[in-house]
Each structure stands twice: as structure tokens, then as C-alpha cells.
Design brief:
Strand content: 5-15%
Strand order of the largest sheet: 1-2-3
Number of strands: 3
CATH superfamily of the largest domain: NusB-like
Number of helices: 6
Number of domains: 2
Order of helices and strands: HHHHHHEEE
CATH architecture of the largest domain: Orthogonal Bundle
CATH topology of the largest domain: N-utilizing Substance Protein B Homolog, Chain A
Length: 147
């Protein structure tokens, strides 16, 4: 599975740069088909940051992991651990900050997708305080807002 993830990251990295697919792969096609939703999920969980600021490789790693978190039944701990290991292997510099950043982003994405910060009453858009964080409900997932 690790090799498959690395191949997906490589293919998605190439797609991001070249805007074409060199190898036919059903999972890659599905990721590209759902790329807008995946990018929305990622952007909603990047605080004071935007997806376009990430390196192409980190963007590919986070996109593949977000796809798995959103569309597969694979346990989140395995997905996040593999993504962090790929980050350590390919994008970590000597300061080891990048894998920590990706880990935090993916942890936030997992929590939002799993309803960790679920705060919904009726079908209205609400804002509430939970653990001293200001939160807002969105139909697809919940995101934290800065106070």
C-alpha cells in the first residue's frame, strides 16, 4: 500500500505541474474528478495559509491523504502516518518542520470530516464556542474560525 500511495503522490504531483495524466489509474482519475472538493476541504483546514502556498509535492501528499480520509474506509491513523512518512522521505528539510505541518493539517482534516467539532442545531448556520475555539457549521464539514 505504501508503494501505491507514493505512486499516487508522484502522479498527482506530475498532474499538478503538467495538467495531464501520464499513467491511467482509476484512483488517480477519481482524485482528479473530486479535486475541487478535496481542495476545499484542505483550504478550510489551513489556518492563515492557502493551498497554493504549499509546494507541489506537499500539496500532492495532502491531496492523496485527504482523498483517502474522505472517500475510503481506511483507518485515519494509517492514512496520516503514511502521509507523514512520505513527507519525511521526500520533503522534510533539516528542520523537520514540514512533516509536523502536514501531520497537523491532516489531523485537522480528519477531525472536521469525522465531525470532531460537530456543532449543529436544526439546519441553520450557527456559531458556537467549544473548548474556547470559535466554530461554525457547514453542510459538508465543520471548520474552526479564528477569534
Amino acid at each position: 500500500m505504501k508503494k501505491i500511495r507514493e505512486d499516487l503522490v508522484n502522479s498527482l504531483y506530475q498532474y499538478d505541474l503538467l495538467k495531464r495524466i501520464e499513467e491511467e489509474n482509476e484512483v488517480l482519475k477519481d482524485i482528479i474528478l473530486n479535486l475541487d472538493e478535496i481542495d476545499d476541504i484542505i483550504n478550510d483546514n489551513l489556518y492563515n495559509y492557502h493551498l497554493s502556498r504549499l509546494s507541489f509535492l506537499d500539496r500532492a501528499i495532502i491531496r492523496v491523504a485527504t482523498y483517502e480520509l474522505r472517500f475510503t474506509e481506511t483507518p485515519a491513523a494509517i492514512i496520516i502516518d503514511e502521509a507523514v512518512n512520505i513527507t519525511k522521505k521526500y520533503t522534510d528539510l533539516d528542520d523537520e518542520k514540514q512533516h509536523k505541518f502536514n501531520n497537523k493539517v491532516l489531523d485537522n482534516i480528519n477531525k472536521s470530516l469525522r465531525g470532531w467539532y460537530f456543532a449543529k442545531t436544526n439546519n441553520d448556520s450557527i456559531t458556537t464556542k467549544l473548548h474556547h475555539k470559535k466554530l461554525t457549521w457547514r453542510p459538508k464539514y465543520v471548520t474552526r474560525l479564528q477569534t
